[in-house]
Amino acid sequence: MADIGYRPERGLPQRFERPGALRFTFYVALAAFVLWSFQGAGWSFSALVSGGPALVDFLSRAWPPSAERLPQLAEALLETFQMALAGTVIGIIVSLPLAIVAAKGMTGPGIISRSLYSGSRLLIALFWTVPDLVWALVFVITVGLGPFAGTLAIDVDTIGFCGRFFAESMEDAEKGPSEALTAAGASKLDTVFCAVVPAAMPSFITTSLFALEKATRSSVVLGLVGAGGIGIELKVAMDFFDYQLAMTIILMIFVLVLCVERLGNFARNRILEGSPR
Amino acid sequence: MAQAQIDFAGASAPAKFPTPVNSAGFRDLAVQGLSKSFGADRTVLRGVSFSVRAQEAVALIGSNGAGKSTALRCALRLVEPDEGDIQLFNEDVTSARQHRLRKLRANVGFVFQKHNLVPRVSALTNVIHGNLGRSGGIRGWSQLFAPVSLRERAMHCLERVGLADKALQRADQLSGGQSQRVAIARALMQDPKLIVADEPVASLDPVAGHEVMELFHKLTRDEGITLLFTSHNIEQALSYSDRVLAIKQGEIVLDGASNTLSSADLGKHYG
Fold first, then answer.
1. From A20's CA, which of A9, A56, A154, B248 has a CA 20 to 30 Å away?
2. Residue of A nearest to B107 (CA)
C-alpha cells in the first residue's frame, strides 16, 4: 500500500501493553510450571517413537476385526446407548430446576433464596468436579453391578455438566425481555419461564446434545468398572489378548459415537431453526 | 425561555388532542424529589419532580445520559430510587411491597427502545405475556397453553397494531417496526391506563418511527390512554405530546405545554 504521508500528531498507540514486573514474573512462573508439568507427566518423545512398532504389532494382530460375537456385542452396544440416553434425559430434567436456583439473579434476596442458591451451586460443583468413573464405583457399591449403576453415574455427571452450563446461559441471557415482563407486573417465576428460559433455550439444546454425546462416550468407559454396557466386553477382550474382538468393539464404539454426534448436529440445527411457540 | 412552573396540583395544560372526558386533574403519575446515583461518582437524578395527568401525552426530552431512562425506570421501581416519592394512580409506589408493586405495574404498559420481546417465541405468545401481571402461571406462558379468551384478547391487541397476520411469526424474525408494534400490543394486553415509552422510535427508521408514533397518538386520542415518552427528536416531542419536560444533568429544567414551545426552545436543553 502506498505511503499517504500522514503522520498522527500524537503518534501511534502501542500494539501491546508492556506488563508490569509482577505480571511479567507471573507469566514466567506460569510458563515454567507448564514445562515442569510435561516432565511430571513423563512426556517422552523417545518413548513415543519406540512405542511405534508395538502399536503396529497391535494393529496387525487386531486386523481383521472378528465378527464372531457380533449379535452379543450389538446387544451390549445398545445397552450402552440406552444407559447414556436414560441417564442424560433424567440428568437434564433434574438439572433444569437446579440450574434455575443456581443462576445469579433468578431467585430473590431473602435468606432462604440465598441458601438455596449456595446449596445448589455447591451440589452442582460436587457433581461436576468428581469424575463419572468415581460415581460409577460408588454406585456399583450402592446398587450393585450392571447398567443401573452406570445410568446413575451418568445422571449425576449430566446434572453437574448441564447444571453448570444451564445456569451460566441463564445468567448470560439478554436482560431486556425479563425487564419488560417485570415492568408488566410478572412474578419472578413467570419471568424466568417466559423470558429467561426461552432466551437460553439455544444454549440448553446445545448443552443437552453435548451431554448426550459425552454420556455415550462415558458409558463405554463405565463398563470397565462393572457398571454395564460394552466396556466390560472390551476389558475382557483386552485381558485375554483377543485383539481382533477388541478391534470390533472399538470400531462399534466409534460408529456409535459418530452417529450420536451426527444426529446431535442434525437435531441441533433443526430445533434451533424450528417454528415458534 | 424561563423554566415553567412544575405543576403538582394537576392544573390542566392546553391539549393538542381532543380533551378526553375524564381528565379533570387526576394524576396517573406524580414523582417528587427523585434522586438516583450509581456508585459514589455517578449521580443520574437530582431531586426530579414531575407529574403526568390522566389521558395526557407528555414527552420527556434530554441528551444522552441526562437521566430520562433512569427516571422512567425509577417511576416503576425497575431501578430502586435513592430518594423521592412516587405516586402511581394515587397509590404510593415507593413503599409498596412486591405483590402490590406488581399489581400497580400491571396497569402500566412499558415500551422499550429495543422492544425487549422474547426471541424465538411467536408474536402472539409475546403479547399474551402482557397479561402476566394480572394472571400468572403456566397458562400465561405461551399461546400453546393459553385459554381461548386470552388468545382472543391477544389477537385483538395484534389487530389493533395491524399485525394479526404475523401472530405466529417468531419475534426475532420481525422487522424493527413490527417488533415495536408487537411490544405495544403486549402493553395493550395489560389494558393499561398509562403507557410509558422509553425512546420508542430511537432504533427505528423514520418511516417505522412515524408509524409507531402515529399508533401512540391514536391510542391517546381514541382510547384515552395516558402517555409518557422520552425522545431525542424535538419535532416528534412537540407533535405527539400535550406537554414537554426537559431534563438536563439529572434535573428537570423545563415543563411547558407543547403548543407554547418551539424547536429552538427545546434545542437549548441539549448539549
1. A9
2. A184
